[in-house]
Amino acid sequence: MPAKKARIRDAETTKLSILDAAERLFAERGFAGTTMRDLSEASGASQPLIHHHYGSKQDLYHAVKQRAVERFQEAWFDQRHRAGSELPFLAQGIRLFFQFLRKNRTLLRLAAWSRLEGDIDLWPGEKEALQSLSDEIRDAQGKGILRGDMEPLFVIIMIAAVTSFWWENRLLLKPLLRGFDKISGIDETFLEQISEVFLSGMAAPKKSLL
């Protein structure tokens, strides 16, 4: 392998290691509670090398949040591409967000720390992602698939709130839910029921034949 390509690959591996370590530590300790020394020890990269690839700690924090949003966008694109028209648009979105948080629980802690530390800014790329999802809902409303009197952004916020609450509190709530022998059964049942609520509530009213 040519030396230049080897260096590029090594640099990419190092950047990924730094980003992974930063996401984990920021989620565990928050931004203020994570030092550059912590990041260096966790990633195996020297502090000067971290600065070289990402700049300041704030810049690295920005990169962590940006990657999280990009991860969701990629998951959304992949699901829409695979699902086609097999699932109603809104059902796809609810299932995707639910499963995404199931696989990316660290992001819930990262978001919680962000709020506790007074960070009120949208994450990098979040505005564009919300606008894209809102446009899809608005398009479905225009086609008469979804009711047109609901603000698309409010719908997205409600779905995000319900699914986030579940993954943040599911273990606390499990003792209150009887009749479920396995936690996975609870998850799937909850997903089915919130999907039913949203799909029923958002369905466009059927036109009278009279």
Topology diagram in text:
Blueprint (H helix, E strand, L loop, with lengths): L2 H27 L6 H8 L3 H8 L2 H27 L5 H15 L1 H12 L9 H17 L9 H22 L9 H20 L8
Q: Key features?
A:
210 residues, mainly alpha, Arc Repressor Mutant, subunit A, Tetracycline Repressor, domain 2, 0% strand, disordered N terminus
Q: Which secondary-structure class do the elements indicate?
A: mainly alpha
DSSP summary: helix tally? 9
Q: Which class of the largest domain in CATH terms?
A: Mainly Alpha
Could you name the ranges where pLDDT drops below 50 across 5 or more consecutive residues? Answer: 3-8
CATH architecture of the largest domain: Orthogonal Bundle
Write the CATH homologous superfamily of the largest domain.
Tetracycline Repressor, domain 2
CATH topological fold name of the largest domain: Tetracycline Repressor, domain 2
Overview of this protein structure:
The protein is mainly α and 210 residues long. The chain folds into two domains: 1-55, Arc Repressor Mutant, subunit A (Orthogonal Bundle); 67-202, Orthogonal Bundle (Tetracycline Repressor, domain 2). Helices cover 74% and strands 0% of the residues. The longest helix has 27 residues, at 3-29. It is globular, with a radius of gyration of 21 Å. The model is unreliable at 3-8 (pLDDT under 50).
